[in-house]
C-alpha cells in the first residue's frame, strides 16, 4: 500500500537556483505523505499506534461493588459507637477473597473477612479495615491478617472492632471508574501503557489502529566506519545513521538502521531497492550537495516511478541554515516516500526535526505533527548573526522562559546536540538578534 500521494514536482519552483522556503518544502512533504491504512492489532502490538475509532465500554468498571481494603465486611449498625474501650464483637462467618464466585451473607452481628478487590457480600454495608480490629486474636489492634495457610482459623470465630464506619466506607462502587456505554478512548489517541491497560480492563484484546511507520535509515560516504572499529586515514565514525534511527524511534516509528553505504551510485540504488520491502519511509543522509562525490544526488536524480506522474526525487536548495541542500520524492513500485538529508551531523539532525519527524507523525495519522513552539528571551554573550534571506536554526537550552545558545552559531558542532533541548529560530529577514530579544523556540524535549 502506497504511503505517498501523487505529486506535481517543480510546480512554481522551476529554476535550478530557486530557494525553497522551509514552509514550501514541508508543505510539499505533508501534501504527499498519506496516513498508513488501519489494521487490527493485539494490544501490545498496538503500543505507540494511533487509534482510528472510538472505543466504548462494554462492561462497567469495576463490574461489582468491591472492597478497597483488607478488613471485614459488616453492617453499619453493628459497629456504630465502637471504640477501643467498648469494641463491637462480631461473629466471623467466613472469608470473601478476590475472584470468589459464591458469596457469604452477612447478617446482624456478623462480619465476613474480606480482601482488597473482593465483591462486597450481600447484607454487608461497609468495610472496616483490619487495622481497626483485633484480627480475631483478642489482643488489641493488629497491623494485618495472618496468611490463610498459616492461620485458617481467622476465617471463623469472633472479631473485635474498635472504630465505627459509615455506609459504603472503603467500598469501590460498581461503575465508579467507567460505566457501560461510556467512551473509553477517542479516535486519534496514541496508545501508551495507560491506554493499553484501559483497553485490557474493559475486555478488548485487539484494537483498530494505524500501524507505526517503518522507517529505513541509511547514511552515505566512503569515509564512514562503524563505531567500535579502528579509524583509518581520512575516516570518521558513522553517527548520522544512529542519530536518525534513534530520532525516528523517538518520533513513534519502527526504525531500521542500514548503516553507511559507499560513494557508489549503483550500490546505493541497489541498497535502497533491497530495503523498500520493509519501508514506509526511506531517509538518507549525505550526498545531496553539489560535490563530485554526492552519490545520493547522482543515484536518485533520474529515478522515477514509470506508472505515476510526478514521482521521483527532487533535489532542492532551501533558504535555511543549517540544511540548505535537501531532497524529497517517492521511489519504487509502492511509491515509498524518500527524504534525502545533508550529511553534516547537525544539518542532518535539524533537517530531521523540521521535515522527517512531521512526515512520520503524518504517516501515523496524527493531526498535530509539529514540535511545541514557544517564545523565550534570548540569553547570550553576544548578538546572534544570520545570513539574510535564510532562516537559521541554532541549538539551545530552554528553561523558565529563557533560551541560551549551545555551541555557538556554527552548523558543524555535533557535540552541541547532546546538550541542546531546543532550536532557536532566527527569521530569514533578520541579520542579527541581540541578547534580551524575544525569539521563537522549537522545544525538542
Distance between the termini: 33 Å
Summarize the amount of helix as a percent range: 10-25%
Instruction: Summarize model confidence as the mean pLDDT.
Output: 91
How many DSSP H or I helices?
Answer: 7
Strand order of the largest sheet: 1-19-21-22-18-14-17
Structural class: alpha/beta
Describe the structure.
- The chain is of the alpha/beta class and 445 residues long.
- It has 7 helices and 29 strands.
- The strands form 8 sheets. A 7-stranded mixed sheet has the order 1-19-21-22-18-14-17, sandwiched between helices. The protein has a 5-stranded mixed sheet with strand order 9-6-8-7-10. Strands 23-26-25-27-29 form a 5-stranded mixed β-barrel.
- The longest helix is centred in the last third of the chain and has 20 residues, at 345-364.
- The chain is elongated and about 95 Å long.
- The model has no long low-confidence stretch (mean pLDDT 91).
Concise structural overview:
With 445 residues, the chain is α/β, with parallel strands linked by helices.
What structural keywords apply?
7 helices; 445 residues; alpha/beta; single chain; 16% helix
Strands, helices and their partners?
Elements: E1 19-20, H1 22-32, E2 39-42, E3 50-51, E4 55-56, E5 66-67, E6 71-74, H2 76-79, E7 88-96, E8 110-114, E9 126-129, E10 158-161, E11 171-172, E12 183-185, H3 193-201, E13 206-210, E14 214-220, E15 224-225, E16 236-237, H4 240-251, E17 254-261, H5 265-275, E18 281-285, H6 295-300, E19 312-318, E20 320-321, E21 325-331, E22 336-341, H7 345-364, E23 373-378, E24 384-385, E25 391-399, E26 402-405, E27 422-426, E28 432-433, E29 438-443
Parallel strand pairs: 1-19, 7-8, 14-17, 14-18, 15-16, 18-22, 20-25, 23-26
Antiparallel strand pairs: 2-13, 3-13, 4-12, 5-11, 6-8, 6-9, 7-10, 19-21, 21-22, 23-29, 24-28, 25-26, 25-27, 27-29
Amino acid at each position: 500500500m502506497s504511503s505517498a500521494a501523487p505529486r506535481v514536482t517543480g510546480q512554481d519552483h522551476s529554476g535550478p537556483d530557486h530557494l525553497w522556503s522551509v514552509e514550501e518544502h514541508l508543505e510539499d512533504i505533508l501534501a504527499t505523505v498519506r496516513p498508513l491504512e488501519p489494521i487490527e492489532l493485539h494490544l501490545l502490538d498496538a503500543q505507540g499506534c494511533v487509534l482510528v475509532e472510538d472505543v466504548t465500554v462494554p462492561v462497567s468498571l469495576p463490574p461489582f461493588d468491591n472492597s478497597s481494603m483488607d478488613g471485614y465486611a459488616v453492617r453499619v449498625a453493628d459497629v456504630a459507637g465502637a471504640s477501643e474501650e467498648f469494641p463491637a464483637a462480631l461473629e466471623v462467618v467466613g472469608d470473601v477473597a478476590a475472584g470468589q464466585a459464591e458469596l457469604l451473607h452477612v447478617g446482624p452481628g456478623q462480619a465476613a473477612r474480606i480482601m482488597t478487590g473482593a465483591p462486597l457480600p450481600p447484607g454487608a454495608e461497609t468495610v472496616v479495615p483490619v487495622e481497626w480490629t483485633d484480627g480475631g486474636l483478642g489482643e488489641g489492634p493488629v497491623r494485618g491478617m495472618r496468611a490463610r495457610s498459616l492461620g485458617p482459623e481467622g476465617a471463623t470465630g469472633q472479631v473485635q472492632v474498635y472504630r465505627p464506619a459509615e455506609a459504603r466506607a472503603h467500598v469501590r462502587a460498581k461503575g465508579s471508574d467507567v460505566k457501560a456505554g461510556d467512551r473509553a478512548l477517542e479516535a486519534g489517541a496514541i496508545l501508551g501503557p495507560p491506554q493499553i491497560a484501559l483497553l485490557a480492563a474493559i475486555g478488548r484484546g485487539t484494537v483498530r489502529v494505524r500501524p507505526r511507520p517503518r522507517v529505513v535509515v541509511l547514511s552515505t560516504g566512503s569515509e564512514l566506519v562503524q563505531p567500535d572499529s579502528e579509524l583509518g586515514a581520512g575516516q570518521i565514525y558513522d553517527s548520522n545513521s544512529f542519530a536518525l534511527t534513534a530520532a525516528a524511534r523517538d518520533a513513534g516509528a519502527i526504525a531500521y538502521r542500514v548503516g553507511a553505504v559507499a560513494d557508489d551510485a549503483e550500490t546505493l540504488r541497489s541498497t535502497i531497492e533491497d530495503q523498500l520491502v520493509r519501508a514506509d519511509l526511506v531517509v538518507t543522509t549525505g550526498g545531496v550537495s553539489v560535490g563530485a562525490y554526492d552519490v545520493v544526488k547522482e543515484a536518485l536524480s533520474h529515478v522515477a516511478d514509470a506508472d505515476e506522474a510526478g514521482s521521483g526525487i527532487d533535489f532542492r536548495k532551501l533558504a535555511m541554515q543549517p540544511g540548505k541542500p535537501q531532497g524529497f520524492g517517492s521511489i519504487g513500485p509502492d511509491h515509498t516516500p524518500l527524504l534525502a538529508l545533508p550529511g553534516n551531523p547537525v544539518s542532518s539532525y535539524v533537517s530531521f526535526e523540521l521535515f522527517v519527524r512531521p512526515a512520520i507523525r503524518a504517516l501515523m495519522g496524527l493531526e498535530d505533527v509539529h514540535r511545541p513552539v514557544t517564545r523565550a528571551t534570548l540569553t547570550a554573550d553576544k548578538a546572534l548573526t544570520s545570513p539574510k534571506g535564510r532562516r537559521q536554526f541554532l541549538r539551545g537550552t530552554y528553561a523558565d522562559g529563557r533560551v541560551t545558545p549551545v555551541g555557538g552559531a556554527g552548523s558543524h558542532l555535533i557535540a552541541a546536540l547532546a546538550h541542546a533541548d531546543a532550536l532557536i529560530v532566527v527569521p530569514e529577514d533578520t541579520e542579527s538578534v541581540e541578547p534580551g530579544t524575544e525569539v521563537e523556540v522549537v522545544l525538542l524535549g
